[in-house]
Amino acid sequence: MSHQYQAIGWNRQKRVYDIVTLTGVALYIALFISLGTLLFPYATAETLIIRAAGSAAFLLLHVVLCIGPLCRLDSRFLPLLYNRRHLGVVTFLLGSVHAIFAIIQFHSLGDKDPLVSLLTSNQNFRSLPDFPFQQLGFLVFVILFLMAATSHDFWLRNLTPPIWKALHMLVYVAYALLIGHVTLGLLQSETSPVLAVATGAGLVTVLSLHLAAGTRERAVDLKKLNTVTNGFVDACSVESIPEKCAAVVSVSGERVAIFKFDGKISAISNVCRHQNGPLGEGKIIDGCVTCPWHGYQYLPETGGSPPPFTEKVSTFQTQIVDGRVWIDPKPKAPGTRVEPSRISQAGVSS
Amino acid sequence: MIQPLRKTHRRIFLALALLLPLLFLSGLAFRHSWPTPAKPHKSAAHPLPSGATP
Question: Which CATH number is correct for A226-349, 2.120.10.30, 3.20.20.210, 2.102.10.10, 3.40.1440.60?
Fold first, then answer.
């Protein structure tokens, strides 16, 4: 870290992304409170704020959870993924407003400490309609706090991507708890079918998108490749790879991205060192494989990032035989140079 | 490196796909009261006492 350190590497895309997010949230809250004041004149200002912030956080968490599978199913959604972490932080901030006002309204007027009151005032764990749903909300708040606090690349580097990813998978636990919080809280007191149908529709959307994307990913992992000679496996045909793009195959339990560029073929690990993004869904830009998630770049011949960057991914030996790409399943050490296979007219190259 | 995470993700969502709809539907089914449509007021059913004006 130096005097030139910047906590966030702002660029135009990030600014536009954040402006759209904040404007959308502000409009939603303004509309919610205006309509709430008109339709429910007896509702207090605190109640309207609690519900506006809570529903905005709930909606935004649905958006955050849908972005991942949408990008797996259709690459046109990739721009939404670019700054998804800021959406998550906004979700946490809205949840915080909801939690603070709820504690002020429901737990700050008694003799007990508000937090103690929140955690102990309702102990009906055996009753669904009287279940202590506020404790579920508190757990969601703790998880979202952990995720927002570790969302910066500083933590990603220090925790390493696999641990950071595993930690951030807690979002699914948070979502399950939040469904419980809403179903056993709001939907018990507000019996309008509209609210129940909207919550159910959100739940079905999130679950179906994730299951559809998971099924598609599994098909790639299960595809068996034929072993040919010298331990090489027949990965795909040269023709099936679009220029400056990649075919992704699963080899020895991990995915490999086979890129075609300038009459050559190179294969590198499909896993970006930044956030485990799918390099094989990116393109070659300025001679570098460019991750579709956040733009991290690697040279296809070496798997190393161009200077001054130091990220490296594994490389794989390739051969071209009769218009087919053969690949050695044993990865080379990250950053190891492997000469690209040249696509010749004869169809045989190495 | 990443395949175990993918498997974990898939298993989490298979579990959630079973548990969350169950929780959601149980929460709705066991709530204290279901919404009932408002009944139109029938003046004939509740006649006004004699001498009263509507």
Answer: 2.102.10.10
Q: Which residues from chain B sit within 8 angstroms of residue A199, using beta carbons?
A: 24
Q: Min CA distance, B50 vs chain A (Å)?
A: 37
Burial of A217 (0-12, 13-18, 19+ CB in 10 A): buried
pLDDT for position A29 = 97
Structural domain A12-221, CATH architecture: Up-down Bundle (1.20)
What residues of A are in contact with residue B27 (Cβ under 8 Å)? Answer: 128-129, 180, 183-184, 187-188
What percentage of chain B's residues is helix, strand, coil (to nearest 5)? Answer: 50, 0, 50
Please check the confidence at residue A43 and state whether its pLDDT lies above 60.
yes
Band of pLDDT at residue B40, cut at 50, 70 and 90: low
Cite the DSSP H helix spans in chain A. 12-39, 45-73, 78-81, 84-107, 114-120, 133-149, 153-159, 161-168, 170-181, 187-189, 193-222
Contact of B36 with chain A, judged by CB distance below 8 Å, is answered with: no
Find out whether B27 and A128 touch, Cβ atoms under 8 Å: yes
What CA–CA distances, in Å, run from A313 to A53, A78, A271, A296, A318? 42, 22, 8, 11, 16
Which residues in chain A have Cβ-Cβ distances shorter than 8 Å to B21? 203, 207
Interface contacts A/B by beta carbons within 8 Å = 85
Peptide bond into A300 cis (omega under 30): no
Measure the CA angle with vertex B46, ends B43 and B52; round to 5°.
85
- pLDDT, tens digit, 9 for 90 and up, residues A64-74: 999 999 988 98
pTM of the model: 0.80
Contact A192 B30 (CB under 8 A): no
Residues of A in contact with B6 (CB under 8 A): 214, 217, 221
Q: B interface mutation test: which of A211, A223, A251, A252 has the most B CBs within 10 A?
A: A211
- The whole-angstrom separation of Cα A255 and Cα A202 is 32
